[in-house]
Amino acid sequence: MQKLIDKYAAKMVEAGLAEPGAPVVGGLDAELRWNRDAPECAELARLFEHLNINSLVYAEPAEPYRSIIDYLAAQDDHVQPNDSETRTFMHDLPVIDDFSAASMAAELKRHKSVIIRNRGIVTWGTVSPEQAFVFFSSACFACFVKFFSDYLYAAKQGTLTAKQTRLFESVADQLYPLPETPPTLMRGPFTNETDVYNAVIEAGRKTVEYRLVDSFFGNVSYLHDNTLYISQTGSSLDELEGCVDPCVLDGSSCAGITASSELTAHREIVLGTGRQAILHGHPKFSVTLSMYCDKYGCDRRDRCHTRCADYRAIDDVPIVPGEVGTGPHGLCHTLPPAMEGNRGVIVYGHGLFTTGQDDFNEAFSSLLSIERLCRQRYFELVGG
């Protein structure tokens, strides 16, 4: 347990979620262990008495997350983002004032995280510290997207406040700089299973390193010998060793049971485009900009993510509705047709999908360049 605790404390810093020395990560095995001694440990330890958990994470987020979360938490007792991750997994983010086990437990019994005003975020895990790390990362991602999305709408409607503008100018100067060039990945086409696994693992790891996906959301796949090798559901893209499932396209294998929830969409994409590699990340500005629409009187306004019937795009990159899974409004129906002939497609509020013919180099390059495009277009919109 101690190794896991230390590992996820370090990953929080590596991911830009917390400053060095800030994370407090606890894990309960034979005894309760912490990554470091901190004044908060005594109160946090009481959460293990109130909740059926084996791990938790507490930290004041690093900038720009900290200022964004403090701002949002000052507005209401619940932060309600509209991105797909939050709708599907987090629902909303409760806010409290009291750093006490009783107050935190009251919210954590019903939510995956709690924001303590001007103190930070607490999340839990029932299986391992990884789960708490994922929830912490997701909360930061959701608040980032909400703030930038709200700011864009306010800028276009002329309702910006001086406080919003000051914060925006501050956090805009602290954004993670996107790398100018993509990495050089393994060259395909791949002719054996070992190379396929290694290529998928490498692509997933680089997607995380370039901060084009947060927590474990996103997926990777490659078609080889009529089999789609795809990351497992819930797997961390930077740790795909042992977490890639070979799914025969004719459905004769049961590997799809643990495969990504977007297996069906991936299958239809490779069949429809003839391309072998698929990358799916959640770059922040691609997600943020996909949620912007100036059609304010639309009667589908509250169902944009599943029912939008209008063609929307960011330059040459289409935006389509669709929800996770294979339901009637699943992205498996909307995404694959849009991928044909395009370098990438953004699913509303969800993330970006790109493809490569023989390997992941083209897919990664498109993922990076489209996110750079979306960041550029975003700042043009708020400045115009």
Q: What's the topology here?
A:
Blueprint: H1 2-14, E1 24-28, E2 32-34, H2 41-45, H3 47-50, E3 55-59, H4 65-73, E4 78-79, H5 84-90, E5 93-96, H6 101-108, E6 113-116, E7 120-125, H7 129-157, H8 162-172, H9 193-209, E8 219-224, E9 227-231, E10 244-248, H10 263-273, E11 277-281, H11 284-290, H12 304-307, E12 312-314, E13 317-320, H13 331-339, E14 344-347, E15 351-356, H14 361-383
Helix pairs in contact: 1-7, 4-7, 7-11, 7-14, 10-13, 11-14
Commentary on this structure:
With 384 residues, the chain is an alpha+beta fold. It has two domains: 2-172, L-fuculose-1-phosphate Aldolase; 193-383, L-fuculose-1-phosphate Aldolase (3-Layer(aba) Sandwich), CATH 3.40.225.10. The protein has 14 helices and 15 strands. It has helices at residues 2-14, 41-45, 47-50, 65-73, 84-90, 101-108, 129-157, 162-172, 193-209, 263-273, 284-290, 304-307, 331-339, 361-383, and strands at residues 24-28, 32-34, 55-59, 78-79, 93-96, 113-116, 120-125, 219-224, 227-231, 244-248, 277-281, 312-314, 317-320, 344-347, 351-356. The chain has an eight-stranded mixed beta sheet, with helices on both faces. The protein has a seven-stranded mixed beta sheet with strand order 2-1-3-7-6-5-4, sandwiched between helices. A hairpin with a 3-residue loop joins strand 14 and strand 15. Helix 1 (2-14) runs parallel beside helix 7 (129-157) and helix 7 crosses helix 11. It is globular, with a radius of gyration of 21 Å. The N and C termini lie far apart (52 Å). The model has no long low-confidence stretch (mean pLDDT 90).
